[in-house]
């Protein structure tokens, strides 16, 4: 891959509904960066990286941890489940991945996910019935809700036991009223949670620091920084398919807020998009394929959630949604992943517009009421029907695959600078 832009601080964002393959791309790009920082989301994320046929699934720790001599940071915009974090650390160490205080840092002001967040997430989702959002039930939404309601508990609170005890007791007593009176569910014991989390405190303490000051020093020292987002832009709390979204700012704008750096320090915004479209959970999906082809894409692409194991909904590439994501991020270029999944297709379609109320729209609609009547408008292209998984050079790209890539670039108004043609780290083709 061309390293001419490697000195630029880069923000990597998903341009669809998540699961675009960001983990693998972060792993590849990390070679050119000093620091990799996660800026939002929580353990609802699932980034999968395959190195020499060994699979790594990361939920909280940045994918850059798989490279030696790199610093990985969890920023203050992330909501942290300490149990998940410690399990992840243990799992990586079993695979001989080094995680130490000199290569991994956690923000002291990141908010903590507690058992009551997970319980509230599960009870609330179950209560919605057919109108459920499709959350991962990891407690992420309720934790962000507490953060915004000024009712959250942060990492630094763990290191002040008496203060933590009083804060936790008050919060759990409030949550128990909801569990018992509203959901007719069992109450939780704040004492048990307190003891559990005090145990976590000692284990995570070596990694905790003032990451805002740390990142400021890194910027001043001209360290090269890669900002890693979770989920996809179409799940952004403001600009996604609300209310079928995540609870944080997924876009590049969220990186500055979730890390505590000046927006001017983000020099390049690189999007990641799959060669077709998937989403997990409920919500509008105009180009969804509820047929044998959709099942084929799911099986060949391994489209099952890294966090939940749920089957992903699959469909043709939705250029209307991706153009919207490009606009709200200001992405200059993109990586196209899983091109090989389309290898067998005789005809490939690109959704270039939506039709409803006898009108055609090529701009992503924000009116949820319009979605049930929305019909996709497709541009059809010939498939290449050749194996692309072994490609490593741009000159090896089949002519019809090149035509598909060119069409996406023209429709989206963006340069595609790299292809991913399989799960392994080495299965990429540089186009620049």
Care to describe what's here?
This protein is an alpha/beta fold and 432 residues long. The protein is 31% helix and 20% strand. The chain is built from eleven helices and 20 strands. It has helices at residues 22-29, 82-94, 115-128, 140-148, 161-182, 190-204, 211-220, 253-259, 292-301, 319-329, 399-412, and strands at 10-14, 35-38, 47-51, 54-58, 71-74, 79-80, 104-107, 111-112, 208-209, 225-228, 268-274, 277-279, 313-315, 317-318, 333-337, 347-356, 359-361, 375-382, 415-420, 428-430. Strands 9-7-5-2-10-1-11-15-19-20 form a ten-stranded mixed beta sheet, sandwiched between helices. Strands 14, 16, 17 and 18 form a four-stranded mixed beta sheet that branches. It has a two-stranded antiparallel ribbon with strand order 3-4. The longest helix has 22 residues, at 161-182. It is globular and about 65 Å long. Mean pLDDT is 92; it is low at 1-5.
Task: Indicate the topology.
Layout: E1 10-14, H1 22-29, E2 35-38, E3 47-51, E4 54-58, E5 71-74, E6 79-80, H2 82-94, E7 104-107, E8 111-112, H3 115-128, H4 140-148, H5 161-182, H6 190-204, E9 208-209, H7 211-220, E10 225-228, H8 253-259, E11 268-274, E12 277-279, H9 292-301, E13 313-315, E14 317-318, H10 319-329, E15 333-337, E16 347-356, E17 359-361, E18 375-382, H11 399-412, E19 415-420, E20 428-430
Helix pairs in contact: 3-4, 5-6
């Amino acid at each position: 891959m061309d390293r001419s832009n490697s000195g630029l601080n880069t923000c990597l964002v998903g341009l669809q509904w998540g699961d675009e393959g960001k983990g693998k791309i972060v792993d590849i790009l990390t070679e050119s960066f000093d620091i990799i920082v996660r800026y939002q989301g929580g353990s609802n994320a699932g980034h999968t990286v395959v190195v020499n046929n060994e699979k790594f699934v990361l939920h909280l720790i940045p994918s850059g941890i798989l490279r030696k001599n790199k610093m990985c940071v969890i920023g203050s915009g992330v909501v942290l489940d300490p149990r998940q974090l410690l399990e992840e650390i243990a799992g990586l160490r079993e695979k001989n991945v080094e995680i130490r205080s000199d290569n991994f840092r956690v923000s002291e002001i990141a908010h903590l996910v507690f058992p009551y967040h997970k319980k509230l997430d599960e009870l609330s989702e179950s209560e919605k019935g057919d109108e459920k959002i499709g959350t991962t039930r990891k407690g992420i939404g309720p934790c962000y809700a507490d953060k915004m309601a000024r009712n959250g508990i942060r990492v630094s609170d763990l290191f002040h036991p008496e203060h933590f005890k009083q804060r936790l007791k008050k919060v759990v007593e409030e949550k128990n009223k909801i569990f018992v009176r509203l959901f007719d569910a069992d109450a939780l014991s704040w004492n048990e949670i307190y003891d559990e989390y005090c145990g976590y405190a000692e284990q995570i303490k070596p990694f905790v620091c003032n990451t805002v000051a740390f990142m400021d020093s890194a910027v001043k020292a001209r360290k090269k920084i890669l900002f890693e987002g979770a989920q996809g832009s179409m799940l952004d709390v403001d600009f996604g398919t609300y209310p079928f979204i995540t609870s944080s700012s997924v876009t590049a704008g969220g990186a500055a807020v979730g890390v505590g750096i000046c927006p001017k320090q983000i020099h390049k915004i690189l999007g990641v998009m799959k060669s077709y479209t998937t989403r997990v959970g409920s919500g509008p999906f105009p180009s969804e394929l509820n047929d044998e082809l959709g099942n084929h894409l799911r099986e060949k692409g391994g489209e099952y959630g890294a966090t939940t194991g749920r089957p992903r909904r699959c469909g043709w590439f939705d250029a209307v949604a991706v153009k919207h994501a490009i606009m709200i991020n200001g992405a200059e270029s993109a990586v196209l992943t899983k091109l090989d999944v389309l290898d067998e297709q005789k005809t490939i379609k690109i959704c270039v517009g939506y039709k409803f109320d006898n009108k055609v729209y090529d701009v992503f609609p924000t009116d949820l009421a319009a979605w049930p009547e929305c019909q996709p408008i497709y541009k059809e292209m010939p498939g290449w029907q050749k194996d692309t998984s072994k490609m490593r050079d741009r000159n090896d790209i089949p002519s019809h695959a090149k035509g598909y890539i060119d069409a996406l670039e023209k429709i989206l108004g963006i340069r595609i600078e790299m292809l991913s043609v399989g799960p392994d780290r080495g299965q990429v083709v540089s186009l620049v």
